[in-house]
Fold this sequence. Notes:
The chain is mainly alpha-helical. The chain has a single domain (2-150), classed as Four Helix Bundle (Hemerythrin (Met), subunit A) (Up-down Bundle), CATH 1.20.120. It has helices spanning 2-26, 32-53, 67-86, 90-94, 111-135, 145-150, and strands at residues 96-99, 107-110. It has a two-stranded antiparallel ribbon with strand order 1-2. The longest helix is centred in the first third of the chain and has 25 residues, at 2-26. The two termini are 31 Å apart.
Amino acid sequence: MISQLKDLLAHHAWADAVFLHAWGASGTQEDVELRTRMAHITDVQEGFLKVLKGEVLAVHERPLPGFDDLKARCRASHEVFAALARGLDDAALARTVRVPWFPEPPCVISVADVLMQVCLHTQHHRGQNMTRLKVLGVAPKNVDYIVWLWKQKPEPRWD
Length: 159
C-alpha cells in the first residue's frame, strides 16, 4: 500500500501542476469560479496537512486569492506532501487522526485514509476545473493516472 500511496501523491502533484500550467496559459486567471474552487482545494490540502501535523486548525474568512497565490500555496502543499511521503511506513500510515470539521460523532481515520481523501477530493474538483476551462474555450489537459504512468511518472512542472 505504501508504494501505491506514494504514487498517488506523486500523480496528485503532477496533475495539479499540469492544471495550473494550463490555467496560467489560458488567459482566464481572473475567472471567479476557477479561483473559488482552487482556493477550496488548497484550503483543504492545507487543512489536512495541519491535521497530520497535529496543529490547530483555524478557519477564517479571507479575500479570494489570485492565481499566483493559489499556485504558490498549491505547490508548497505538494512539497510538504512529498516530504511526508518519503517518510511513510506501515506505522505512519496506521496512525489515526481526528478530522475536526466533522464534529459528532468524531471522524477518526488513519493517515492512509487522509492521504487518499486528499488525492480523491482534489481529483474531483480538478475535473470540475478542467471542465470549466473547456467552457471558457481552453483545451483541457488529460491528467488521468494512466497518462502519468504512460509518461513514465514525470515530476510536476510548476514553472
